[in-house]
Amino acid sequence: MRQACIAREGWKLTIPSLALFFVLLSLHFWSLAAPVFLFCAFCLYFFRNPRRETAAGREALISPADGRVTEIKDMVEPEFVGGECKRISIFMSPTDVHVNRAPCEGRIVRMVHRAGDFALAFKKDIDKENERNYILLDREGEKILLVQIAGFLARRIIPYVKENDQVKRGEPVGIIAFGSRVDIYFPKMYESMVQLHEKVKAGLTPLAQKKGSL
């Protein structure tokens, strides 16, 4: 299936606003037509969904989000991963593409949405306090966890997938609006291929690779 250049949520705003723009234009309401056009242009920019194809090898985990790497950490995740793992956190600014993508191929074995606060996305402990959506992937027995976390401006996390879906690497799995954070947890057999504060792109940038396969 061919990927749309605009996320599906964007059409719900751009089509009505574009129609209203032409109506106002036909009625010569120039002062009203101008801000409506600007709003439509903003929606087209914000909900953009560019085609992405990575050149990374099959073993690589690719970035699930556009943004900047804010943390690379060894930790224990008891609920979904069930043990030791690595976590990479990516902060998405309001100007980044907000469509999130699968970091690898696999089956979605669990998906959980939890209500919470809307604190700033770069604050400590927002992964436990903010509104968030957990997507657990099984990749040939490996557990890869993706966590979409709402930020101060983000008020909705919209998943495109559900439990038992099979996804391909780079396939869109959801969207978060207006600045937020995405965390990816993966086994310690992988090593990071990015640096702290590095800019990454969803569906393109390799984040981690199995040790010995570099």
Structure description:
- With 214 residues, the chain is α+β, with helices and mostly antiparallel strands.
- The chain has two domains: 8-46; 61-210, Glucose Permease (Domain IIA).
- The chain is built from three helices and 14 strands.
- An eight-stranded antiparallel sheet has the order 9-5-6-7-11-3-2-13. Strands 1-14-12 form a three-stranded antiparallel sheet, with no helix packed on it.
- The longest helix has 19 residues, at 8-26.
- The protein starts with 7 loop residues before the first helix and ends with a strand.
- 36% of the residues are buried.
Summary of the model, kept short:
The chain is of the alpha+beta class and 214 residues long. The protein has three helices and 14 strands.
The Cα radius of gyration reads 19 Å
Q: Kindly provide the name of the CATH class of the largest domain.
A: Mainly Beta
Helix percent reads: 10-25%
Biggest sheet strand line-up: 9-5-6-7-11-3-2-13
Largest pleated sheet: 8 strands, antiparallel
What is the mean predicted local confidence, pLDDT? 86
CATH architecture of the largest domain: Distorted Sandwich
Number of strands: 14
Proportion of residues in β-strands: 35-45%
The chain-level structural class is alpha+beta
CATH superfamily of the largest domain: Glucose Permease (Domain IIA)
Any idea what the shape is?
elongated
Unreliable sequence segments: none
H/E element order: HHEEEEEHEEEEEEEEE
Contiguous helical run count: 3
The total number of structural domains is: 2
Chain-wise SSE layout:
Blueprint (H helix, E strand, L loop, with lengths): L7 H19 L3 H17 L14 E2 L4 E11 L5 E10 L6 E3 L4 E9 L11 H4 L2 E8 L2 E9 L6 E3 L6 E2 L4 E5 L3 E7 L3 E3 L6 E2 L5 E5 L4
Antiparallel strand pairs: 1-14, 2-3, 2-13, 3-11, 4-10, 5-6, 5-9, 6-7, 7-11, 8-10, 12-14
Helix pairs in contact: 1-2
